[in-house]
Design brief:
By secondary structure, the protein is α+β, with helices and mostly antiparallel strands. Helix content is 37%, strand content 22%.
Length: 350
């Protein structure tokens, strides 16, 4: 092939490519042109390059130089077209691709779950009443979950059908007297009262603490029950603590969280770890709803942690966080809190 024919073919291809790339209006069309001219297998440049073999030896340097110039020009035109289209936008463009006068896209911000809101609010209220926040493990041994709380081995609360025992988690009793004590099965704690035992074992008196966290019981889910829920445990141990102080604290808490017009009542009850014991209800939707249990710490509980019940007294209470949350936000089904429905939860954004 003569050199002038080779150069003419390159010039014609360059003119056609530049004209096409100036008019391209979408990334799809740009990609088709890229394959047409620079494709590795059947592109126009690849076809012209094969003609170099038929050029006379003395003309090959000039032919090669011309080929490289045309190739670089087509690649530059491709880059310009890509930049003009905004880096590959599939929509036709005319003029600039960014309009600063258009409103921006508002980012979607998450919201705090109503249970978390309630936990933080409870901490704030009880902090103003002088209670410090403590924590404890959710996987407990039977000493802290039952024995130290004066719950005997034959008590229904220790039934395997009423607890989540963990077959693979075992722990020796912290207060076992013999070195050959057989490790016992642990369980997911069924109450936050376990924390008061751990605190009384390790911290000096007097004590005024609360603990908030998850507890687990194999309850069938319904409008007011769920197998996992939250409790707020409170404990006050000092000299000459009375039942009147317990009732005052719970009334102050109820009016602070549920409003000054809330009606609450105390009903006599029984818990192995308090004596006397009461259950606390609030009035809502035409009925009394239980939201916790309380009472004076039983002397047997004090004995189990090495505290003299003749010198010290105290009260404890455990309140259901979900029921307090439902009362405050007007939620009638506890299962709505755990369905992960963003449409429902977004109503309670703070």
């Amino acid at each position: 092939m003569a050199l002038d024919q080779f150069v003419s073919a390159l010039d014609s291809m360059l003119q056609e490519a530049c004209a096409s790339l100036l008019e391209v209006q979408s990334s799809e069309a740009l990609e088709q042109l890229r394959v047409k001219y620079t494709g590795a297998k059947s592109g126009a440049l690849k076809s012209v390059q094969k003609m170099l073999g038929s050029i006379d030896v003395k003309d090959k340097p000039a032919a090669g130089k011309k080929f490289n110039e045309v190739r670089d020009s087509i690649e530059a035109a491709l880059a310009d077209a890509s930049q003009r289209l905004g880096g590959g936008s599939s929509k036709p463009v005319s003029g600039v691709s960014f309009d600063p006068t258009l409103p921006g896209l508002r980012p979607r911000l998450g919201t705090i779950h109503p249970i978390t809101q309630t936990l933080e609010h409870l901490k704030e209220i009880m902090g103003r009443l002088g209670f410090n926040v403590t924590e404890g493990p959710e996987i407990e041994d039977q000493w802290h979950n039952f024995v130290a709380l004066n719950i005997p081995e034959d008590h229904p609360a220790r039934d395997p059908l009423d607890n989540f025992y963990l077959a693979t988690a075992k722990s020796a009793l912290p207060r076992s007297s013999g070195s050959n004590q057989v490790p016992e099965a642990c369980l997911l704690r069924s109450q936050t009262s376990t924390v008061q035992i751990r605190v009384m074992e390790t911290q000096p008196l007097p004590l005024r603490i609360i603990s908030l966290g998850r507890v687990y019981r194999p309850d069938a889910p319904d409008a007011t029950h769920f197998p996992m829920f939250h409790q707020m445990e409170g404990l006050w141990v000092d000299r000459n603590v009375t039942m009147a102080q317990l009732k005052s604290v719970l009334r102050l808490f109820a009016t602070s969280y549920l409003g000054g017009d809330v009606s609450i009542r105390f009903r006599p009850s029984f818990f192995p770890f308090t004596e006397p014991s009461v259950e606390v209800d609030y009035w809502w939707n035409g009925q009394w709803v239980e939201f916790g249990g309380a009472g004076m710490v039983d002397p047997n509980v004090f004995h189990s942690v090495g505290i003299d019940p003749e010198a010290w007294s105290g009260f404890a209470f455990g309140l259901g966080v979900e029921r307090l949350c439902m009362r405050r936000f007007g939620i009638t089904d506890i299962r709505d809190l755990y369905r992960s429905d963003v449409r429902f939860l977004s109503q309670f954004a703070t």
